[in-house]
From TrEMBL:
<feature type="domain" description="RNA polymerase sigma-70 region 2">
    <location>
        <begin position="10"/>
        <end position="78"/>
    </location>
</feature>
<dbReference type="Pfam" id="PF08281">
    <property type="entry name" value="Sigma70_r4_2"/>
</dbReference>
<dbReference type="InterPro" id="IPR013324">
    <property type="entry name" value="RNA_pol_sigma_r3/r4-like"/>
</dbReference>
<keyword id="KW-0804">Transcription</keyword>
<dbReference type="InterPro" id="IPR013325">
    <property type="entry name" value="RNA_pol_sigma_r2"/>
</dbReference>
<dbReference type="GO" id="GO:0006352">
    <property type="term" value="P:DNA-templated transcription initiation"/>
</dbReference>
<feature type="domain" description="RNA polymerase sigma factor 70 region 4 type 2">
    <location>
        <begin position="111"/>
        <end position="162"/>
    </location>
</feature>
<dbReference type="GO" id="GO:0016987">
    <property type="term" value="F:sigma factor activity"/>
</dbReference>
<dbReference type="InterPro" id="IPR036388">
    <property type="entry name" value="WH-like_DNA-bd_sf"/>
</dbReference>
<dbReference type="InterPro" id="IPR013249">
    <property type="entry name" value="RNA_pol_sigma70_r4_t2"/>
</dbReference>
<dbReference type="Pfam" id="PF04542">
    <property type="entry name" value="Sigma70_r2"/>
</dbReference>
<dbReference type="InterPro" id="IPR007627">
    <property type="entry name" value="RNA_pol_sigma70_r2"/>
</dbReference>
<dbReference type="InterPro" id="IPR014284">
    <property type="entry name" value="RNA_pol_sigma-70_dom"/>
</dbReference>
<protein>
    <submittedName>
        <fullName>ECF RNA polymerase sigma factor SigE</fullName>
    </submittedName>
</protein>
<keyword id="KW-0805">Transcription regulation</keyword>
<keyword id="KW-0731">Sigma factor</keyword>
<dbReference type="InterPro" id="IPR039425">
    <property type="entry name" value="RNA_pol_sigma-70-like"/>
</dbReference>
Length: 176
């Protein structure tokens, strides 16, 4: 198999993971799309530096992380909303997800969706509004008629329940 074919297969297998990783650090969908394309192009240009004995996911996330930091340096006039430490935490979480049972990233996302669907409405709606719909804190507070502290507690408790559910479904050793 030639390098081009191998690269196409590896990118196809990692596209959802890579989009999710970038999306977890960047809110603007156009920027997410651009950063994904820049990451893939950079990976292609640097393919000769990829160690085929190692998983490609961490390598791609490393490139994407550098792209996100550069993006924020170009566009932010204030503090960057993401830093090296946050990127390392994200990368560790994605690595943990990658080691879970389930053949594909889609299988793992399906498990996450099942866990979200199993949450009581008290936790499900705030989590969906914040993380799926990407709504702002104030908007969620207003729509659900909740105080900010109540919303924070519901999100924290909902995420804890999600972690427990995923641990049970997929055998996640460290849920957080």
């Amino acid at each position: 198999m030639d390098a081009t074919s191998l690269f196409e297969i590896l990118i196809r297998e990692n596209t959802d993971m890579l989009f999710a990783y970038i999306r977890s650090g960047v809110r603007d969908q156009h920027a997410v799309d651009d950063l994904y394309q820049e990451t893939v192009l950079t990976a292609w240009k640097r393919l000769d530096t990829y160690d085929r004995d190692r998983p490609i996911g961490p390598w791609l996330r490393g490139i994407a992380g550098k792209m996100m930091l550069a993006y924020y340096r170009r566009t932010s006039r204030t503090d960057q909303p993401i830093d090296e430490e946050s990127l390392q935490w994200l990368n560790d979480r994605f690595a943990a997800i990658g080691s879970l049972q389930g053949d594909t990233f889609h299988d793992k996302l399906a498990a996450m969706r099942e866990c979200i669907d199993s949450l009581p409405e008290t936790f499900q709606r705030p989590i969906t509004m914040r993380y799926t719909e990407q709504r702002a804190w104030g908007e969620i507070e207003s729509m659900l008629s909740l105080a900010k502290e109540t919303l924070k507690k519901r999100l924290a408790r909902g995420k804890a329940r999600l972690a427990d559910c995923l641990e049970n479904k997929l055998g996640l050793g460290e849920a957080s």
